[in-house]
Amino acid sequence: MSSIDGPDEDGTGPVGADGKIIVPENVQEAIRTLIRWSGDDPAREGLLDTPRRVARAWKEYCQGYGEDPAVHLSRIFEEVGGYDEVVLLKDIPFQSHCEHHMAPIIGKAAIAYLPRDHVVGISKLARVLHGFARRLQIQERLTAEVAQCIWDNLKPHGVAVVIEANHACMTARGVRTPGVGMVTSRMMGTFLKDERSRKEVLSLMGYG
Ligand SMILES: Nc1nc2c(ncn2[C@@H]2O[C@H](COP(=O)(O)OP(=O)(O)OP(=O)(O)O)[C@@H](O)[C@H]2O)c(=O)[nH]1
Ligand SMILES: [Zn+2]
């Protein structure tokens, strides 16, 4: 495959003439080994392009390693008309992969903060979530990282993050128990210290 110089638009690696990331031979071979180990023949026609596809899919699932989610919080808005109440983005769907089985984690998040003088564009909260979700994760760390990033960069009075997700490693394999949801939360600042504020934000999130 011929290549053009320079990274693709996500900065994940050199791309070929078809505009797709070039997958090194050793990565493809690793996937062929896994196919063989699973019981199939990587040389059969339907599987010939699979190693390349799988590798590119994993680059996409793990796009978060190529970014610092904090960059999304650098553009602030100071003219907020004196608004100093809760800002909440809820029901944000996300996908991640568990670091134990590399199996999908599919869920939704609610992210809230209590602004101190300034706010950010609301889409940026979802961008921060995806930046940390697109890595190999456990749900507890994902929750903590999203909250800490907002806390460190916006310096708000409070941050609250609640994540609810299903883990495919519990449904498609292992204990094989569909329908169970894991819930994690991280409260910081006012939401941690003040019970009334915590109750208010949880109620706005739909957990009241
Ligand atoms: N706390 C936590 N556990 C997770 C998460 N994702 C997956 N797990 C769990 O990680 C554990 C790994 O347990 P191990 O005993 O090392 O692996 P295993 O033999 O594959 O475990 P089973 O899934 O019970 O078959 C399992 O209990 C998973 O359910 C997560 O985000 N947070
Ligand atoms: Zn798992």
Task: Describe this protein's structure.
This is GTP cyclohydrolase 1. The model is unreliable at 1-7 (pLDDT under 50). This protein has helices at 25-38, 50-61, 123-133, 139-154, 168-171, 190-193, 195-205; strands at residues 3-7, 14-16, 76-77, 87-98, 104-114, 119-120, 136-137, 158-167, 182-189. It is 35% helix and 26% strand. It folds into two domains: 3-61, GTP Cyclohydrolase I, Chain A, domain 1; 76-205, GTP cyclohydrolase I, C-terminal domain/NADPH-dependent 7-cyano-7-deazaguanine reductase, N-terminal domain (GTP Cyclohydrolase I, domain 2), CATH 3.30.1130.10. The protein is built from seven helices and nine strands; from the N terminus they run ββααββββαβαβαβαα. α1 packs across α2 and α3 packs across α4. The strands form three sheets. The chain has a five-stranded mixed sheet, sandwiched between helices. A two-stranded antiparallel sheet has the order 1-2. A two-stranded antiparallel ribbon has the order 3-6. Residues 98, 100, 138-140, 167, 169-170, 174-175 line the site of guanosine-5'-triphosphate. Zinc ion (ZN) binds at residues 98, 100-101, 103, 167, 169.
Can you give keywords for this protein?
five-stranded mixed beta sheet; binds zinc ion; binds guanosine-5'-triphosphate; 2 domains; two-stranded antiparallel sheet; GTP Cyclohydrolase I, domain 2; GTP Cyclohydrolase I, Chain A, domain 1; alpha+beta; disordered N terminus; 208 residues; 35% helix; 26% strand
